[in-house]
Design goal:
Elements (H helix, E strand, L loop, with lengths): L21 H119 L4 H36 L3 H23 L10 H35 L5 H5 L4 E14 L2 H7 L2 H21 L2 E7 L2 E6 L8 H16 L6 E14 L8 E4 L2 H10 L8 E4 H7 L3 E5 L3 E3 L3 E3 L1 E7 L14 H5 L3 H12 L5 H5 L7 H15 L6 H10 L9 H4 L6 H8 L1 H9 L6 H10 L9 H16 L11 H11 L3 H9 L3
Parallel strand pairs: 4-6
Antiparallel strand pairs: 1-3, 1-4, 2-3, 4-5, 6-10, 7-10, 8-9
Length: about 650
Amino acid sequence: MSDKIPAPQDGMDETSYDQLSREEILAQFLDLKREHAFLQKDKADLEAMYQESMAKERERSRLEKETLERTAMDIFVAVGELSEEKSKAEREKKLIESSALDIAQAVGELSQEKTKIEDEKRMIESSAMDIAQAVGELSQEKTKVEEEKRMIESSAMDIAQAVGEISEEKARIEYEKHLIESSAMDIIKNLTELSARQAEELKASFVPPTLPAPPPVAASAGLQEYKIALQKGLEQLRTMKGEYTLLLQKIYPAHFLPVLENREAFLPSGQVTVLVITIADFYQHLITMNSVRLARFIKKLSCDLQAILHQFGGWLVAYNHNSYQSVFGSPSNPRAHALEAAQAAVEVMKYGAGCSFKLSVRLHTGPMVLGDFGSPERPQYHCLGELLAYLEVMKRSEQARPQSILLTEQLHATLRFFFDAEKLEPVSVKGHGAIQVYRLRGPMSTAANPHRVEPGGYLASKYPALCREIQEKREAAFKGWNFEKIEVRDGSLGTGEAIAFYATAYAREQHLKANEDLLIRSAFLLNIGKMSISKAVLNNPSATPAEKKTLANLYGFTLALLSRNPAFKDVAEVIAEFRLDIDDMKRPEARALKVAAAFEGISFPKLYKTNISSLKQAVNIYRNAFPHPMYRKFLEMMGR
């Protein structure tokens, strides 16, 4: 009897395995093992596919989030710019209303002149009736016919001459209308003088009743033509004045219009800062490049430079061959004009790094005069002052190499706590002797600023790379943002980095478990409400009660702006809690911002309010003003 048992068939129960031989059971076991291995491989493949799919999904979500954040930031910037446009529109509205009042006054004066002319017309008609009566009486005396005829011809010649004078005045009116295109204010003055002179000439020509003359048909017709021409001139005056104002608004900033409309006045603008940009290789391009192509490059360069300068309150007043001259601080004369000009120079150098031309910049501050230095046919609004001599000498010095920013000692004294500068060899100015020159390197970081962090102290030694880390996180979170443009509005350049530096270091030292990315973003956005506040209010050291109330609501403006952007919901929550007392705060980010912002406000106030003589003095004021234990811990971190 054989020991071999038939292989089990599908559907066999477990007891059927008793009929299999050992070899058959082993063979089936190996088959099952191979099948299990295949299943394990399939499972691993499925796991890998799942992980890959999840990674792709996470990457897609991350990209979508970044896109949404960038879009949100762009919208936020656009909202800020629209807010500035709204302020500009309000200023333009006031200017238009002022211009309307001026025009209404001019129309009133012209109406008075018209009334005078009507009175003169009635007097002329009365005189004409008397003359006609005299002619009738003289016609009865036959012996004097020839003499009267000669007198009539003579009078006719006088009237013809008067009519000719009226025609000349009409031609003069046409010429005056042509001059309206160059100056609306000149035509108002000339037209007023013309009306008075015309009335006097008509009165002198027609009043004497003793001389016989033909019926005054020609005189009346000439006067009527003059009236029609005067009305047309007035209508064109209104149109031309509006076009003239619109043209000025397109060319010049709105705050220059009061100066520009009065072309005979010169405005002593006080202290201003002048920035001169030079194309170092201009003449080389002039020789080697096609003239039309070079002209297009220069046109694009001019537009790009004007856009940069306009961001920081500068006005490009002149272009001469290879140099551009811009004025900061006139005529409104904001107190932070030196800081705005220096930051504009830094931005110009950033632009110049990718430009076809090699640019260099020179800066100086001093008194200037603003006005129209051109002829009536070619107005040229410019600035004039002896500081231009300093800039010209700096241009000829060996230090003025391409891609460099030179500034005088006077300007460096103002900017020394904001910008890092290298001391150069003095240059000689005729009549003034040698002047010290500096090369500006760029904004000074918080850790390297002796007015904010003690050199060699605890913070400087333990966190030397923190400023670079903050800048990298800022650039990643706010691509395309220009916080310097906002900060220089009130002379507080670098305040965002300083608050972020203090707050991040404090959170690390006290182990607050704060979200550092959120903390840094909140520090830079803390004062962004400045975009909603007028620059004049920000620059005013002695604000009115209404202006002080506006400044006190700075963080309210910040929250209003952030609430429009869903990407900054977490920042808005931090800043909302930041406004509470420190004992009522629950977020570690808000507490860190509170102690940091308080110290920054004392140690480094606005450019034109910097009265703190040393960091030690600032620490003493901070200790007395903020006795809470959290503020004392901040001073302990600073080694005080």
